[in-house]
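Fold it.
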Amino acid sequence: MIILVLNCGSSSLKYQLLDMKNDNVYDLLAKGLVERIGMEVGCIKHQAAGKQKIEREMPIADHTVGIKAVLEALLDKEVGVLNSLEDIEAVGHRVVHGGEEFFCSALINEKVVEGIRKCCDVAPLHNPANLLGIEAVNAALPSVPQVAVFDTAFHQTMPDYAYLYALPYTYYEKYRVRRYGFHGTSHKYVSAKGAEFAGIDLKNSKIITCHLGNGSSVTAVQNGKSVDTSMGFTPLEGMIMGTRCGSLDPDIVTFIMEKENLTPAQMSKIMNKQSGFLGLSGLSSDARDLNDAANAGNARAKVTLKKLTYDITKLIGAYTAAMNGVDLIVFTGGIGENNPRLRRRICENLTYLGIKFDYDRNAGEKADEMMITLPDSKVKVAVIATNEELMIARDTMHIVLDSQE
């Protein structure tokens, strides 16, 4: 089954085209990125398997135009991979927030679209963009089935004492204010892949997955199910991130708003877009830039990276306590997969767990799957490259096939 996987942001969309034979046998036909949607000059970067990568600038007024650009690239005689749009058998969408509406992926219909729309209040940066992608595909490929795969779905197994906040219960009843968690597709993939790689029975395991990137979260996965996660009602909670502040004393919010005479929208922008690595360092939201600055002696870059290490270490410790132990810790995401120094510093603070760190393997050549602890380590630590697009394609394939029976 040829499946187009879309991940739509407010001004961008990532895509992959996969030919799915079954869950584990597939071909990646093409992938790419459309950027600067809605700006004066947009851009598409497209890479077909075995062909030259292209980058083209063009006006991309909205997501409908962006989707059209993707389909044209897939059909292009020189860099494309399709003979006809009829070759696309299904489209899978990453949808960030499913609230309590969706406990699993869903075949998209009017009811599902309305459910996604209901969650726009709690994911104003993401769900509207996801809906734009769905509507754009409807316009371009009206007869092709579409599936929504929710970032929050994997975390719906959390117990109530983990997802409830200690606010008046009426806010949960009226507005469903609770912990939802995000990056669920990634946490689900790397926990299962990590267990297989480490020789651990997923259904009898205690795993902590660390998805570390511009947005980051840590999840406790017990017997294959999420039991707690660091992001909360929105993706703002948890550790320090690229531009997000992470967890803080809630009274800081009202204090700064009163002192600076800020509106809720202005304060939200500060916490989501101007904080984190960028706010604390005053330099950049990119961990690579902070590493360079820290190596050059910049004190604020150093303390920002120390805070990142500290936040992750605390979360691993908390989730080890919550599960009464841990068998495997997994690092994934752009930072988790590519920053050996961060992994080393975290693991050096976890020797009480019986971790015996493999310094040579950690610092050696990168691989999609690698163990960075020694064979006699009591707790295993692995680096697993995440593959959210594959998870979306798998769910899409199964749901579409089931709907056709």
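The chain has 15 helices and 14 strands.
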